[in-house]
Each structure stands twice: as C-alpha cells, then as structure tokens.
Amino acid sequence: MQLNSNEISDLIKERIARFNVSTEARNEGTIVSVRDGIITINGLADVMQGEMIELPGGRYALALNLEQYSVGAVVMGPYTDLSEGMKVKGTGRILEVPVGEGLLGRVVNTLVSQSMVKAQLSLTN
C-alpha cells in the first residue's frame, strides 16, 4: 500500500484537528529535604515571602527563605511523615489567621484550626 502526499497531508490535518490539549497554570513544587520542621522545595517559582504552602494531609507551611531555585518553609504542624519527592502547592495567600472575641482566653494551634476548638467561635479574618 502506497500513500500519496495528499493522503498524508489530509491524515495529518485530521489528526491535528482532533488533537486536544488542556493546560492549567499551577504553582506546584517538590520537597527536596526535610530537617527539624524546615522543608526545602524546588519548583515554586512564583511563591511570595510569607505565603502559605499547601502540604499533603491538609497541612500548611510558611515560605520564608526565597532563593533562586528553591524555597525554605517552616511546617505548621507535624512534619515527621513528610519526605523527599512529595508534591506541594503554592496557595497565593499570605499567612492569615482568624481573630475575634471568641479567641480570648483560648489555647489554639498556630493556624487556629477548628479541630483544636471545641465550640464554634465567631471569628473574622
């Protein structure tokens, strides 16, 4: 079987027309080291100083050390299960903590997680 140039051209045009690519902008990185609650991340090119970085398991880290090819961040919570190669995401949000009268006299964790608070509190950002 021999194809002529018109058939090849038509076949290529058909495949190009059916080709579907979806792109999504992401600010995603990879943990390259974990030491004493400090993680080093590669791949977070657009992260800001003080930005919250989403970690596996619904935890967060705070970006503090911005270098050309890596980011140093402090983990806000347990870190012993974090390891090299895990994926993390930039949130685009600077550290934010809810405040309000309901917090007076209460002991909460660094991010005022609802799991630490037994009663519903009236808090504002």
UniProtKB/TrEMBL annotation:
Q: What is its EC number?
A: 3.6.3.14
- A Pfam family found in this protein is ATP-synt_ab_N
Report the SUPFAM superfamilies cross-referenced here. Answer: N-terminal domain of alpha and beta subunits of F1 ATP synthase
Q: Where is the ATPase F1/V1/A1 complex alpha/beta subunit N-terminal domain?
A: 28-92
Looking at the record's lineage, which domain of life comes first?
A: Bacteria
Q: What class of enzyme is it?
A: hydrolase
What would you give as a GO molecular function for this chain, any one?
A: ADP binding
A GO cellular component term found in this entry reads:
proton-transporting ATP synthase complex
Alphabetized, the UniProt keywords read: ATP synthesis, ATP-binding, CF(1), Hydrolase, Ion transport, Membrane, Nucleotide-binding, Translocase, Transport
Q: Which family does the record claim for this protein?
A: Belongs to the ATPase alpha/beta chains family.
Report the protein's function: Produces ATP from ADP in the presence of a proton gradient across the membrane. The alpha chain is a regulatory subunit.
Q: What is the protein named?
A: ATP synthase alpha chain
- Native species of this protein? Vibrio ishigakensis
